[in-house]
Amino acid sequence: MTRKFLFASCASMAMLAAPVNGLHAQAADASGGAVAAVGVSDFDTERARALVSQMTLDEKVAMVNAAFGGRARTLRPDDKRVGAGHGFGVPRLGIPELFESDASLGIANGIDMRPGDAATALPSALATGASFDPSLAYRGGAMIGAEARSKGFNVLLAGGVNLVRDPWGGRAFEYLGEDSWHSGVMGGAHIAGVQSNRIISTIKHFALNPQESGRAVANAVIPEDALRESDLLAFEIAIERGRPGSVMCSYNKVNGDYACENANLLNDVLKRDWAYPGWVMSDWGAVHSTAKAALAGLDQESGQELDTQVFFGAPLKAAVQSGAVPQSRLDDMVTRILRSMSAAGLLDDPAVQDEPIDQERHAAIAQQVAEQGMVLLRNERNLLPLAATARRIAVIGRHADKAVLSGGGSSSVRSFGGTPVDEAVPGGGMMSLVRKLYHASSPLAAIRARAPGAQLAYASGDDVGQAVEAARKADVVIIFAEQWRSEMVDVETLALPGNQNALIQAVAATNPKTVVVLETGGPVLMPWLDQVGAVLEAWYPGQRGGQAIARILFGDVNPSGRLPVTFPASDDQAPRPQIPGLAAVKAAAAEAAKKPPVDINSPDFVIDMTGGVAPFDIVYNEGADVGYRWYQRTNRKPLFPFGFGLSYTSFRYSDLKLGEGGEWSVAFTVTNSGTLAGADVPQVYAAPGSDGNSVYRLVGFQKVYLQPGESRRIALSIDPRTVAAFDTAQRVWSVRGGPIGIRVGRYAGDTVLTAKLNVAATQLRP
Ligand code: BGC
């Protein structure tokens, strides 16, 4: 039996283009979120219902509370499928267990819960985002999914599409960028790739969880329409395109209710408006109630040991018996889980363990993502690409002789090839579950291999004098700078940590032919920008990062990444210059640091997910104008805008035509006007309405590879939701008729071609 899609019938797709008039009313009620109520009736749903009808109450309750797999408490002692989570099956009905692994960037094993088990490590998700290539996002997801299958995991905790609202977000590296359309398209492709392996992917973290500090207690405050037009639009698009089997609700509160007991988010938006037929699993330690959560639309408690008590076990059974939670709601929870299992293929084609992994092919995919995602930010007098004949090269930077940095937290992968640097992180409490890992991919070795005739000098940079000396004797300097980010902690400043700015300044003052290679988890400040010759943003470049960097530096690969996030010019340029709640978070962390490290294998292990921080509000005043839209609205000039990135060649845009292929169509020609082959990412921005108040937002992009002199006609169709306003009273997208300003450019705020698109006023269901 083959099924191409996880949703055999997706009501939301059919409804997408349907005008509102004539469709059924959308009143919120208790049944609004049930699979039956959203009109899903297909093979998988019927099969799920048939299974549910044969299950006992205890079997159903067992399926909706899942364990923290890290403790392996519920696994057989010899079972190797130790990951973040474990869900119960029903063997007598052939319902398999759920083996869940974190997998944002590869099959995670940061804290070595499967001793010695390695996997292919992709670059950070920001690098995938920077590729602006959905087919590459799909291939990355497909690679991770294939390794999951080979290790026996059938649910991947992947698909992070939270918008990077704050440039200092600790988890920015796990997300795709700051724009809804871009994150939705790229995230959907990644999820579809994961699920092409007949396993389930989540999409996470639903919703408005861009901040790590106080994530378990913070209340995100934002108007409903702004939320629908920004973060939720990214989820809406990614869910339509990727069709993930599960949605993971986040830790934080949204407008007063915890996301995992937020009836508006789960029942009204996700399950009713979007007709989502899969299941909602909680984040680990994000459940706070039984009846409230169950009635609001939570379908499964994950990592139940991390909650203050188990909410969906015995308490849920009692709630069903007393009628506080209707039996039909419990049946719907289980139906949703089983439906996704059936649709993904878990019931017919289960993942088997110990299958061989094509490590070489997978490493090549990781390398390709790194090469396509790196962003060339500066290149004075064509310092790059370096001539393979460069005689004397100085390589400077801590660990640049052996490895490349990766981000911290649940996404951390121990990569094939090894982790030559594996450092504990100070902080105590939850931070004791984080390691700072580097992948064994030596930039120095890769540069040496690429320039065999050159004299290479290496200095760690710890001793500035020694580094300056190396720079003085070199024709060209390549200096590696890094900024580590991790889940659970935001960065307090965008300045490069330690002595790195001083080091770069000193080196560049000695030798202006200095190339700075940044390994960062998001934007950083560059006070030395005007003094250096070139800057390459390499993100966390994954397990082939060293090779990918060398290939870009020497021009084997023409850089084509574009920034998926705005790089601010100063710490106080973004909407929240300071991290909300930071003082309290730091005080609590100082207390936590005095306590012994958390031992997840101890039988009396308890974790305080609040970290000892009292609840606080985060007000998202920028509303839907996230990232570059905030800069435009407030007339600020960032260091580098969203969408920016240089190439070793140049591109020309011409012949913009609107409306030729339908009301929403945009077409134009891209020409490689330089002398080298390369890829470009032309971007289409639109400003709805003609009152001059709205900002230009991204409505389309396409990565295009062109030989020198070659031209390609690009035809895009704008999704009306990207320019619509969300009408919260009618719960519809409302497109104001009239001319819409269209710009084709190379980055946000750039205008190469411009025209007005005439569209009729219309309303669309979500
Ligand atoms: C993270 C999730 C992750 C889960 C399981 C949580 O702390 O927020 O992204 O999937 O842990 O490890």
**Which strand order does the major sheet show?**
1-2-3-4-5-7-10
> What level of helicity do the residues show?
25-40%
SS-based structural class? Answer: alpha/beta
Q: What is the distance, rounded to the nearest whole angstrom, between the alpha carbons of the first and last residues?
A: 32 Å
Features:
32 strands; disordered N terminus; 766 residues; alpha/beta; 7-stranded mixed sheet; 6-stranded mixed sheet; binds beta-D-glucopyranose
Note down, in words, how this protein is organized.
The chain is of the alpha/beta class. The protein has 19 helices and 32 strands. The protein has a seven-stranded mixed sheet with strand order 1-2-3-4-5-7-10. Strands 11-19-18-17-12-16 form a six-stranded mixed sheet, covered by helices on one side. Strands 9-8-6-20 form a four-stranded mixed sheet, with no helix packed on it. Helix 5 packs parallel to helix 6 (180-195) and helix 15 (464-472) runs parallel beside helix 16 (500-510). The radius of gyration is 25 Å and the shape is globular. The model is unreliable at 1-31 (pLDDT under 50). Residues 84, 102, 157, 204-205, 283-284, 410 line the site of beta-D-glucopyranose.
Task: Write the SSE topology.
Layout: H1 11-16, H2 43-52, H3 57-63, E1 67-68, E2 85-87, E3 98-102, H4 125-131, H5 134-150, E4 155-157, H6 180-195, E5 200-206, E6 218-221, H7 224-228, H8 231-242, E7 246-249, E8 253-254, E9 257-258, H9 263-273, E10 279-282, H10 291-296, H11 314-322, H12 327-344, H13 359-373, E11 375-379, E12 392-396, E13 404-405, E14 421-424, E15 435-439, H14 443-450, E16 455-459, H15 464-472, E17 476-483, H16 500-510, E18 514-520, E19 534-537, H17 545-553, H18 582-593, E20 616-619, H19 628-633, E21 651-658, E22 665-672, E23 678-680, E24 683-687, E25 697-701, E26 704-706, E27 711-717, E28 725-727, E29 732-735, E30 738-745, E31 753-759, E32 762-764
Parallel strand pairs: 3-4, 4-5, 5-7, 6-8, 6-20, 7-10, 12-16, 12-17, 17-18, 18-19
Antiparallel strand pairs: 1-2, 2-3, 8-9, 11-19, 13-15, 14-15, 21-22, 22-27, 23-26, 24-25, 24-30, 28-29, 29-32, 30-31
The structure holds beta-D-glucopyranose (BGC).
